[in-house]
Here is the input.
Amino acid sequence: MTVPELIRIVSRSSPMALAQVERVRAALTALHPGLRTEVVPVVTTGDRWMGDLAQVEGKGAFTKEVDAALLAGEADLAVHCVKDIPADRPLPAGTTFAAFLERDDIRDALVHPGGLTLDELPAGTRIGTSSVRRTAQLAASHPHLECVAMRGNANRRLEKLHAGEADALLLAVSGLERIGRPDVITQVLSPEIMCPPIGAGVLALQCREHDTEVVDAVSGLGDPDAHRETTAERMLLHVLQGHCNSPIAGYARAERNGDLSLRAKVFTPDGKTVLNAHEWAGPLDPATLGTSVAVALLRQGARDLIDSIAH
Ligand SMILES: NCc1[nH]cc(CCC(=O)O)c1CC(=O)O
Here is the structure.
């Protein structure tokens, strides 16, 4: 294998995204000691726009400009949160996933400056989140709490919380760890209470398809379990034709005995209807498991729930 001299890494420029890039740079340098890396930060539509994502062509709002830089040859490697990569359409033509990194915590966390847990929050507490997935599940489990729209990267949301725009936040544990703020977590929510999004906690390394030098150089960072779990989850989302504003949650888990399970839920925005499916792969490959669970949800009426949300 010929290792390139330099790999230019493109990413969003939020603190979380830059921390992710530093992790990839460190891992690449450990794997190939002579290799140099450079960071190419870009600002995406999703970073600029603070309104409803559905209004700015929500699909790919956090990935479009990053993928464009990769395809234009301004960078050789893109680092994405899998959670932010659309699954209802193929990856941009000419690009491919070279690796999925070992998975971080998939759970969401409550951030409440007063230190209360979700069950202790008084009626009317304002939870800052614009996520349909979080809003629907909270409406089902804690209907006395109020969700208020809040967007922006995790650091910005913490600032908005302290400025009084909300009383508490729901954020991904992995994201808070990446920005070095796990200290603000008051409660980690189990997946039963707050089912995570597809691709939670997984970073994807994306390359130009024919750039075999770079693909080969970075593929050694891939984690087999993250690959199987992500493949099952993204196929589920693909078959459901879920979009960035979909009330869909789910996660696959590679068990120690080698079997793979996939659980997924589809909600109405008010959380009053919850479709639920859980299957084991057994002899099925991860993508077929994803298809099977998606079909189980479609049989329960998932199409209407997903299509009723503007996108
Ligand atoms: N939508 C922003 C985003 N994209 C990925 C993560 C978390 C990290 C991950 O799951 O990889 C976050 C922040 C959040 O939801 O709190």
Remarks:
- The pocket of PBG is lined by residues 81, 83-84, 154, 171-172, 174-175, 200-201 (CB under 6 Å).
- The domain at 108-188 is CATH 3.40.190.10 (D-Maltodextrin-Binding Protein; domain 2).
- DSSP finds ten helices and 13 strands in the chain.
